Amino acid sequence: IPRDTTYTVWSTHQKLKKQFPQIAAVKPLQSPSIVQRFDVPYITIENNTGRRELKADLFYPKKIKTKLPGVVLVHGGGWRSGDKSMNTPLAQQLALSGYFVMSVEYQLSLEAKYPAAVYNLKAAVRWLRSNAAEFQLDESYIAIIGGSAGGQLASLIGATNDNKQFEGNQGHAEFSSQVQAVVDLDGLLDFTDPENMAVKRTAQSADVFWLEGHYDSIPDKWRDASPLYQVTEKSPPFLFINSSQTRFHAGYKAMVAQLRSMNIKAEVIDLKDTPHSYWLFHPWFKPMTNNIISFLNQTRKKDKP
Questions:
Q1: Are 210 and 221 in contact (CB under 8 A)?
Q2: What is the pLDDT of residue 305?
Q3: Could you give the CA distance from residue 119 to residue 225 in angstroms, rounded to a whole number?
Q4: What's the CA gap between 26 and 43, in Å, rounded?
Q5: Average pLDDT of the residues of the chain
Q6: I need a surface site. Which of 27, 108, 244, 263 has the fewest CB within 10 A?
Q7: Which residues contact 66 (CB under 8 A, 6 or more apart)?
């Protein structure tokens, strides 16, 4: 499988440090309080080269007193680059706060185009529920979190709760892929938003390459992949944490309005003077993480007596 390695923490740091000299990359920590398991297979898929496993990294508290709420983490990289290791620091912090975290690999666009990644992620949620007994997981609560392309995917997974069109058939069909909360870190909500459409594109542009065509040739697919157009009463609460780079979260205002019109919780946190990919760096990582944990804790309590 060809790999695009252009989106890494190191390369992003090199690009951003001129404008933001104060930033520092967030490093993974060593904690005796959490269990870490890397490269655990969660589905076997077919591709042009045959069969291969998709894998996930698991993080959870070493001492478990009650069933753990679940979180699926989705990395960014323009649907083409990046990898699950970029999520490790956030996964560790969530595990320290009492969550069972699954940081997933999914099929990037050099291997498979849209909607393959959507089917992978729905399968990841189902796999997590299928292993609830082994991991002492509270299967009634699974959230999904993503940054950039991962935020778009996480939002689409949540918006399409119980929508069979987006389900795929990659294993554990007897379990639900429904998620109970979404956190979108600078992930696009509407591919057809005027601000997003104003950007000049080629056949190699991230969205054109992933969706297999420009908007003019396949408008239905561009709308299909836009979380904004998939919201229903079954969509879960959303938290949007936005950088100051507005193009990357195009469509969120309309989506917030739509969610709230259905009495679905929709919170927005705007981080001033921040770059895209802020979630990988100090000084934004800690306040972002605190906001995520607060939101997850609130949505968990919503249905408690």
A1: no
A2: 36
A3: 12
A4: 30
A5: 96
A6: 263
A7: 138
**Residue with structure tokens 């252009």?**
6
Which two three-digit tokens encode residue 179? 């998620």
Burial of 234 (0-12, 13-18, 19+ CB in 10 A): middle
Residue 200's pLDDT band (cuts 50, 70, 90): very high
CB 82 within 8 A of CB 187: no
* Range 65-68 contact pairs with CB under 8 angstroms and sequence separation of 24 or more: 66/138, 67/136, 67/137, 67/138, 68/98, 68/99, 68/100, 68/135, 68/136, 68/137, 68/138
Quick count: other Cβ atoms within 10 Å of Cβ 240? 24
Single-letter amino acid, residue 271: L
Question: Span 3-18, mean pLDDT?
Answer: 96
CA pair distance 203, 201, nearest whole angstrom: 7
Which residue pairs, CB below 8 angstroms and at least 24 apart, start in 16-25?
16/275, 16/277, 16/281, 19/275, 20/275, 20/281, 22/283, 23/281, 23/282, 23/283, 24/281, 24/282, 25/280, 25/281, 25/282
Q: What is the pLDDT of residues 101-152, one digit of tens each?
A: 999 999 999 999 999 999 999 999 999 999 999 999 999 999 999 999 999 9
Query: What pLDDT is recorded for position 1?
Result: 85
Q: What is the pLDDT of residue 302?
A: 61
- In contact, 212 and 218? CB cutoff 8 Å: yes
